[in-house]
Amino acid sequence: MLVEFKFKNFRSFKNEAYFSMKPSSLNGNNKNTILTNLKKIPQIYRTAGIFGANASGKSNIIKAFQLFKFLIKTSFKSEINDLINEDRYVLDDENTHKPTSFEISFIYNNNLYKYGITYVPSEILKEFLTYTDISENGSARENIVFLREAGKELKAKNISQSWINELAPNRLFLSEIVNNRRSTDEHIMNTYNYIVNNINVTNNNSSEKISFEMLQGNEGQLIIDYIKEADLGIEDISIKELSPEDIMEDIKNDKNKNSRDFAERLIKNILSGEAKVFDIKVSHKTEQGIIKQCYLENESEGTKVFIAFAAPIINTLRKGGVLFIDELDASLHPHLVRYIINLFNNVNINKNNAQLIFTSYAFYLMDGDALSRDQIWFTNKNNNYWSSLHSLRDKNEKRKNKSFIDAYLNGLYGYTPNINIENFVKLFNNYENNK
Question: Would you state the pLDDT for residue 334?
């Protein structure tokens, strides 16, 4: 279960951003929480929403985790002179020379793990991994698995000294020791597997292929049932992967040279395994009770987005883990957005402690039911330059489950766009008058 995520000097975030799934108060059972039975962190939220104006930094929070995960997965491949991927805050000359940092805390097998990195493009400045047994009989003492600091000898338990000595300055120790050294250390493997395999980031474009493939498999009926319950008027979905010959047959009478060029490139990608093309038809029932098939591309944008999100949502609910979704409400009706969130909040479905973290403009979720006070987060642009991240609890809201919609729309939290239409009216009229 994800507990906290911190990052600093990344994209629009100049200073440290802090995000947490922990309730601010443990008095009683908080709404929408997982009861962990662990003494130090007895409750963790199942869902959280990040809201804010356009260009305030919402998507950058998810991109921060994407980069963090990417570095862990790929760092072991770096050549000695390769620069480490980074995307620092660039609107302050001083920050362009400062390091970027990421840190995650999560619960796995009754341990609270903390893993963090600090780096500049040429080298890792700091990397650490700790764990604390937070079970009922645990000692609550933080144990260091390894600690790496630039200019100092790396400290690690039960790790070969030769592996430590051969570590390149631009490679993450966690990535190196798992992939190139085949470490079997329990805590190292728990950390690597949790971040790489248990936390997923998706949007409707990246998830579409996964959902189509799942529809073709044995679990396809589960997706169809999930879609039918959303009241989209869909009875069934048929899907067939097209071969290069199928594609050529479809375009053989097309006189458009650009279409043929595109088809040839597509076929090359298919043959190399880099692309797949599906023929997807959606079944609807007519007024006469007859089932009629229609092509998916003729469905509404919202229907296509809902289908695209299906596999990541269902897989996460079934297996557990964390799912990040950017712009969850894009093209979706408010009832469909609530449907997705309520699945994660429902203890009868979400039996494996899955967590959903999403960005959104859907202020109607701030009703105290779908999301309580501690589950609502805001991004804001400070002085129109750098982003910051805050929880609604930082605004000294006393009640956890009241509706916060009116207060948000009236700007009482300060995270709505500052729009002045009168200024543009004057500028527009001046422009027209001076033409």
Answer: 86
- Among 232, 200, 228, which Cα is nearest to 331's? 232
User: Closest by alpha carbon to 357, among 227, 201, 137, 180?
Assistant: 201
Encoded amino acid at 341, one letter: I
**Integer Cα distance of 367 and 201 in angstroms:** 26
388 secondary structure, DSSP code: E
Q: Please report which residue ranges of 229-300 form alpha helices under DSSP H.
A: 244-251, 257-271
Exposure string over 387-424, b if 16+ CB within 10 A, otherwise e: bbbbbbbebebeebeeebeeebeeeebebbeeeeeeee
Q: Which two tokens stand for residue 231?
A: 């009241």
H or E element at residue 127: strand 123-133
Structure-token pair, residue 376: 């609502």
More confident residue, 378 or 273: 378
Torsion of the alpha carbons at 52, 53, 57 and 60, rounded to the nearest 10: 80
Stated as kind and residue range, the H or E segment containing 303 is: helix 301-319
Give the span between the Cα atoms of 9 and 341, in whole angstroms: 31
DSSP string, 31-90: TTEEE---SS--EEESEEEEE--TTSSHHHHHHHHHHHHHHHHHGGG--TTPPPP-----
Say what the alpha-carbon torsion angle 394, 395, 400, 402 is, to the nearest 10 degrees. -150
Side chain identity at residue 175, one-letter code = S
What's the pLDDT tens digit per position in 236-253?
A: 888 877 776 666 666 665
Residues forming a β-bridge with 45: 33
Task: Report angle CA 32, 36, 40 to the nearest 5 degrees.
Answer: 110
Q: Rg of the chain over CA atoms, in angstroms?
A: 25
Q: Cα–Cα distance between 353 and 30 in angstroms, integer?
A: 15
Of residues 351 and 30, the one with the higher pLDDT is: 351
The pLDDT of residue 286 is above 90 = no
- What span, in angstroms and rounded, lies between the C-alpha atoms of 405 and 402? 9
Q: At 199, which amino acid appears?
A: I
Cα separation, 387 vs 375, whole angstroms: 19
Q: What confidence tens digit (pLDDT) does each residue in 107-161 have?
A: 999 999 999 999 999 999 999 999 999 988 878 789 999 999 998 989 888 788 8
pTM of this prediction?
Answer: 0.86
Tell how far CA 130 is from the center of its chain. Answer: 24
- Hey, which residues does 102 pair with through a beta bridge? 7, 117
In the three-class reduction of DSSP (H, G, I as helix; E, B as strand; rest coil), residue 198 is classed as coil
Structure tokens at 96: 């362009």
